[in-house]
Structures are given as C-alpha cells and as structure tokens.
Amino acid sequence: MPKNKKACPRTLSGIRVRFAPSPTGFLHVGSLRTALYNYLFARQNNGDFILRIEDTDRTRYVEGAVESLLKILTTVGLRWDEGPMLDGKEKGKFGPYVQSERTKIYKKHAEELIEKGHAYHCFCSADRLEKLRETQQANKLPTMYDGLCRGLDKSIIAEKLKNNQPHVIRLAVPKEGSTNFNDVVRGAAAFENKLIDDQVLVKSDGFPTYHLANVVDDHLMEITDVIRGDEWLSSTPKHILLYKAFGWTPPRFAHIPLLLNPDKSKLSKRQGDVAVEDYLKKGYLPEVLINFVALLGWNPGTEQEIFSLPELIKVFDITKVHQAGAVFNLEKLDWMNCEYIKKMPLNELVKICQPFLVGACLEVAGQKLENIIGLERERLKKLIDFPAAVEFFFKEPRYDAKILIWKKSDQKTICSRLKTLIKFYDTFTWDWSEQWIEQATLDLIIKEKLENGTTLWPMRVALSGREASPGPFAIAEILGKEETIKRLKAALALLCGK
RNA sequence: GGCCUCAUCGUCUAAUGGUUAGGACACCAGGUUUUCAUCCUGGUAAUCGGGGUUCGAUUCCCCGUGGGGCUGCCA
C-alpha cells in the first residue's frame, strides 16, 4: 500500500466509468481486465459503464474489430449501459460513442484552446522533429518539442494556414511548476511541468490524438473515474493540464498494473496468445477468463479463488489493486478452467462442448454423449481437448499392439486373458451395465485366479486404444456388448494374430 | 539518454514493527486406482543488496541493484 493513498472516494450514485478500446484487431486479455475492473466498479456503485470506441488512428483501423469486440464483451457477461450496441444502434444520450464520428467536437475544442492561448499551431516537419530528438538524446537531454512554433506571430500563422501548410495543434504546457494528482492505486504522483512535452492534440490529418479526444469525451460524457492501464500513468499530467486549460474538473484516476509475459515484459503476442478470442476458441470458459483475470493484481484478502461475476461485484475493491505487474500464468488458468469443468452441471458442460465436437465431426447428441463427457471431464483442461479424448467412443481405435501388454506380463498371458474375456462376454446374460459388468468380471477374475492387472489393463486398452483412459467397465457399457466384444477380438487378432 | 514507477517461494499472492513468513498453481514423494485423471496425505521453495531509525525491520526512511512503463502527428 502506498502511503498517501487516497481514501476510497466512493459515492453511492453518479459514478460513471468507461472502457475505451481501439479497434485495432483483437481484444487483449489485459484490456479484458481493464474492462472488468471498470465494470465491477460501476456495478458495485450502481453507476454506469460506458463503452466508447477510440478509432482516431485511421491507419491502424481493422475492419470488423468493433463487432468482434462487442461480441466478446457480451460473451463474457460485461454488459455496458451506453455506447454502440450489437444491433448496430447506439444507446445513451452522450453519443456518438465512436470517436471518428465526433471530429467536429474535437475541432471546436481545439480552437477554444487556441483562443485561450493554451494551444498553438505547429508547422514543424517530421524531419526536423526527428533530428531534434536525435540531438537531444545525444546530449542526454529529455526528448521533447523545443517550442519553435510556440511564439509564432499571428500574421505568419494566418498566412501559413491560408497556404494550406501542413500543421498540427500542440498543447502549450506551462514552463513552471508541477502537475500533481492522487491516483487511487498509485497514490500521490508529481511531474515537473518543464519535463512535460507540448503534446500534439490535433494531427495534420485533422483527427485528434488520444490525449485530446479522450479528455474531451471523458468530460462531455461525465466520466467520474478513469480506470486504465498503467501505461497511461506518465501521460496523465498532460491530461490534467488539458482539463485545467478547459477549466474542467478532472476525474479520479486509477492506473492498474500491467499484465506481463513470463519474462516480465508487457504481455505481448510474441510470447503466446493475448487475444481473448484465442482463449475462447480453445475452450477456456468465459467465466474462467473473468475469474482468472480479476485475480491478477487484486485479491479479496481471503483464501477464496473461485468467483462468479456477481460475487466479484460484491467483493472487488479498486483501492486494493496492486501496484506491481502480474505475469499471466497459463498453468494456473488451466487449473481454474479444470475446476469449472469438473464442477459445472453435466448437461451444461455437454452443451458448451457441442461446438467443439461438431467441429471434429463426432456424433453429437443424446444420453450417450452425456455419459461420455461425464467420463472424460476430470481428465481435461479445456474444451478443445474433448474431441481427441472422446474420439474412440465413436471410432474404432488404432493403436500399437505392444500397449496391450500389462507391465511385465507377456504376450501369451495377455492373449489368454483376452480369449477368456471374449468367451465370457459372449455368454454374458446380466444387464449390460457398468455395475453388472464390473461385478461379474471381478468375480470371474477371482474364480479363474486371474489378476486385475493382466485382465483389466488389456481390456481397457482394447476398448479405448489408449494407455490413459476411463475404466474398462464404464467404456464397455457405453460401447455396448457387441462393440465391446468386437474390439476385444480386434485386440486379440492384433496381438496374437488370430 | 530523460521522466515515471515497481520489488515476499518459479508464478499468482497473504501477513506483521516481534509469526515456525500463510494460501493457491506448478513441482516432488506417498496413499487410493487395472492406467491416466480425480481424490487424500506429506514435502521442496520467498521477504533483491547495503545503510539508517528502532530493544527489535521482511514491514518505516535513504541509497544502490534489478525489472517495467512512457519518451510517436499509436492508443
């Protein structure tokens, strides 16, 4: 806990937060957590959770990214109150919620800043700026704009504008003093103004930068709390300066720690999946993703680790979010997915498995499927593992004859056991159920002085074709008497050549 | 280079100015089981380093070290 940490500034109403992603491709798991923390904070305060699309960089815009984003947020259960909706319409009175449709608003505000003397036109070329940075770095100076255009004469500006000379608009950052704020998770933060760059607010293509659009929108949309990734911390003084320049009150800020690669760098595509969609496709449950990501950088202080979304709303506390980054640990994700798979109602599990089985062209309905999935569920980490694990129930297995042989027993013994089993089941008259097959077979083993290992192991392998699988009796029941005998005979032929 | 920031087992984390530094994942061993998995029992494993304050520091302060973020007409 940082000293100086601001006491939880909660009110019971009027809280408005936003999740403001850029449609540049896929929803990052780090963004999912940012969205989640915003959502939890809004819900626990009866506040509003707003979705805004920050697409001011046309060069990085990806077709379809917004739609996929909306779908994923819906899938994981983060319902938003305002913003673009799945039906293509918008909800909320502060719209449009897509920044590319708000350019007039930003233009107007940029002009206002220029009039007030808080912003200025800059005609410097990219070339000059690059050289400037190089020189500064070579001289061990901070790399920032030198303010060449800041004092430009009004008549010169007017003429350059008249000639359509390319330009940007920059924030005129005060040279003196410092900009301070109190971050809900970071505590007190202070930045010297002389080290804050004259940030570009409007690009030469007329689009605003993040800094301008974000501040204007957050104010206009009456956002009370900005909960965002830690990478924004060092830009926050610029934003505060902007609020001041407009004469607005800044919102509260909460900068949450980054999600990290195993090597502790910022979580990136290079080192594994980062798209929520990729995890969904592999059969990580939406609830698990939410649960898992909630616990990265925050915990309730109890030993409970499994939380539903409603439970998270109750116990989440933004002031207890950590300051250090957290490695995104796949092993623990797997474990948590397992926990959910093991504990969820079977019929529900069957339902969510269906798409994965259909994709693998396996039989997909009925009581039989439910039994099969029931048998395999404790063995699997994610839904995409089901098709391969379950395949032998639908198709005759192919396997190496050698694996029929139990430990140090020999081919001769195993062949004899298989023959005994075939003969026994051929004349089997009890109910063909797991219970009866088991009881009768174990009785047979005792009576004939066989051993469990040399009898049951080859039986199971004959039925499943695997060294690891559920028990032979459960498989036999599902396969049915005829198929069971067929597979035992196939095993006999494979191992003993008959 | 500059600015900011962070630091407890391998990982996610709990706790405290005085504890055998707790839990979870992973790992190892044992038990159960025809196998794997599940399940049960046990185990290995951490307060980055140096100063200071203090009777006592892992906890508070300073310095260092290491990591990370930002340093774009990206967000």
CATH class of the largest domain: Alpha Beta
Number of helices: 19
Which sequence of strands runs across the widest sheet? 5-6-9
CATH architecture of the largest domain: 3-Layer(aba) Sandwich
> Main β-sheet: number of strands, strand sense, barrel status?
3 strands, antiparallel
Number of domains: 4
Determine the structural class based on helices, strands and strand pairing: mainly alpha
Q: In whole angstroms, how far apart are the ends?
A: 74 Å
Whole-angstrom Rg? 32 Å
Helix content: 40-55%
CATH topology of the largest domain: Rossmann fold
Description:
This protein is mainly alpha-helical. The protein folds into four domains: 16-100 and 259-327, HUPs (Rossmann fold), CATH 3.40.50.620; 102-256, Rossmann fold (3-Layer(aba) Sandwich), CATH 3.40.50; 346-392, Helicase, Ruva Protein, domain 3 (Orthogonal Bundle); 401-496, Arc Repressor Mutant, subunit A (Orthogonal Bundle). 44% of the residues lie in helices and 10% in strands. The protein has 19 helices and 13 strands. The strands form six sheets. A three-stranded antiparallel sheet has the order 5-6-9. The protein has a two-stranded parallel sheet with strand order 1-2. It has a two-stranded antiparallel sheet with strand order 3-4. Strand 1, helix 1 (29-44) and strand 2 form a beta-alpha-beta unit. Helix 17 crosses helix 19. Mean pLDDT is 93; it is low at 1-12. The structure holds one RNA strand of 75 nucleotides.
